[in-house]
Amino acid sequence: MITLFRFLSILPLWLLHGLGWLLGWGVFFLSGVYRRRFLDNAHQAGYGRARWMGAVGQAGRLAVELPRLWLGRAVTIHWDGDLFVEAALNQGRGIVFLTPHMGSFEITAQAYAQRFGARQPMTVLFRPARKPWLRAFVATARARPGLHAVPTTMSGVKQLLKALRQGQSVGLLPDQVPPEGLGVWAPFFGRQAYTMTLSARLAQQTGAVVLVAWGERLPWGRGYKVHVKPLAEELPADATQAATRINHAMEQLIAECPQQYLWGYARYKQPRQEIS
């Protein structure tokens, strides 16, 4: 598997995205469970075929581009909203980046590390792979100057808090279903979804600036554009209200490009047991 990853990492981005498009549609047609969840989630959000169809191939591109992003040479990155990052860094309060399962969320953290990491590093929260060999490989592949990855454990959460208190940045996927006890039920596209409270608590406990961001996958392998904007409204102290407000912000972000949202993600699943 590692040999395959290394081979894929040397291929041009346009070719990887072409292979990913085929993979996305192949999985869509062959897996009834995945296809039903994909369509149910898109319909729940109120999107018709014209708005969700492009996301089928984009889901495959998300998977196939990873070897290039982890192991290959640098890709072209454009920015939209980098002035918001500059302004937040100038305040020295730390930044909480909220990025949904949309576009290339891997490139969002890499782009920050490349552009701002020397000034203030970023720490991102990720769920480790179940297989030990893959866990070690991914951790090594993700590591780069200005970017630290920590696991979804209490130790990882403590590292996020420490980073913010030092004026650094952290990145989370706020639409990722947290373990039981670490979230609340809040509406997401009109349906109750178990939603993490961590993102709001990090900002409230440290006074950090909250920015929403996503990495747009440009056509024909031309690279990526990272979009950043401030959270439209301040987060209330109440956990459910804060989670509802964050979900609404993610809905607005997804509405900008539903063709690149990961509709196949099991957003409405029951939470697993609490992390240790």
Give an overview of the whole structure:
By secondary structure, the protein is α/β, with parallel strands linked by helices. The protein has a domain at 76-260. Helices cover 48% and strands 18% of the residues. It contains eleven helices and nine strands. The strands form two sheets. Strands 1-9-8-2-5-3-4 form a seven-stranded mixed beta sheet, with helices on both faces. A two-stranded antiparallel ribbon has the order 6-7. β3, α8 and β4 form a beta-alpha-beta unit. α2 (13-30) crosses α3 (32-44). The longest helix has 18 residues, at 13-30. The radius of gyration is 18 Å and the shape is globular. It starts with a helix and ends in a 20-residue tail after the last helix. The relative contact order is 0.18. The mean pLDDT is 93.
Compact summary:
The protein has 276 residues and is an alpha/beta fold. The protein is built from eleven helices and nine strands.
